[in-house]
Amino acid sequence: MEPITGFAAGVPFTALPPEGVAGPAPLVVAWHMLDAPRSDAAFAAALPMAGVPAWRVYLGMPFCGARMVNGTMDAGLELVRRDSLRAYTDRMISGAAEEFPAALAALCEQLPVAPGPIDLVGGSLGGGVALLTLARGVVPVRAAALVNPAIRARSVVGLIEKMTEQPYPWDAEANAVADRLDFVARAGEIGDRARVLVVSGELDFPQFRADAGALVHALRAHGADAEVVTVPDLAHPLAEEPGIEPAPQLPIAKTVDDILTEWFTR
């Protein structure tokens, strides 16, 4: 079946209908990466999870996809230059999480979604959105799968520091923001609300890989059913550049897609 595209409370989405399901079906909501694939449509093409008997709905992050300014990612890059923590990381993660409840309500009006807890998927910064949604506890969640997720804002800022060779000007306000977006430290707020799978690329950024293990350890300490799966040969992105339009699924993305499909159906 062809993807369904539209807007839910102003948030662009790409929805993939469940195959062979008559009537309302469960809902999986996904947030894309800011690396490739960096739009809802491109993320849906990279990780379609076709074998999951549920609606898979991919939401666009701020300044991405249909919300790009002048058809480019330049506005997002300007946020990185302005302030990689407050203007970029926090604005992307917190902004997407804050607009989600209204978008979810609109999706439930537009699509034949079954009532009950939903599932979440997030890649990179989109993983931070899924984790913040879990920590807030506003939306009931059954399970969440995170792919090379941004688990600690300090790790994201550190990565940008290395790329730009510019130190970040930390102050008290910035540290407070980073604490709020540190989901290892906030694992107790997530607790056993949902089963959690972390898919970590063997070639992902070293700090992201370390954070993945630390998150699973912390979640288990708070009673969560959490596990980490390391994928050989997987770096951070899941698609080739530019990663904005849907593209043929790469073999390494197919490997991740199979892991998510098996885990959610199980």
Architecture overview:
The chain is α/β, with parallel strands linked by helices. The protein has one domain (4-265): Alpha/Beta hydrolase fold, catalytic domain (Rossmann fold, 3-Layer(aba) Sandwich). Helix content is 42%, strand content 18%. It has an eight-stranded mixed β-sheet with strand order 1-2-4-3-5-6-7-8, with helices on both faces. A hairpin with a 2-residue loop joins strand 1 (4-8) and strand 2.
Record keyword descriptors for this entry.
266 residues; alpha/beta; Rossmann fold; eight-stranded mixed sheet; 9 helices; 18% strand
Shape: globular
CATH superfamily: Alpha/Beta hydrolase fold, catalytic domain
- Low-pLDDT stretches: none
* Tally of DSSP β-strands: 8
The total of helices stands at 9
Computed CA radius of gyration, to the nearest angstrom: 17 Å
Strand arrangement within the widest β-sheet reads 1-2-4-3-5-6-7-8
Approximate helicity band: 40-55%
Q: Give a short account of the largest sheet.
A: 8 strands, mixed
Mean pLDDT: 95
Question: What class would the helix/strand composition place it in?
Answer: alpha/beta
User: How would you spell out the order of helices and strands?
Assistant: EEEHEHHEHEHHHEHEH
Q: How far apart, in Å, are the first and last alpha carbons?
A: 23 Å
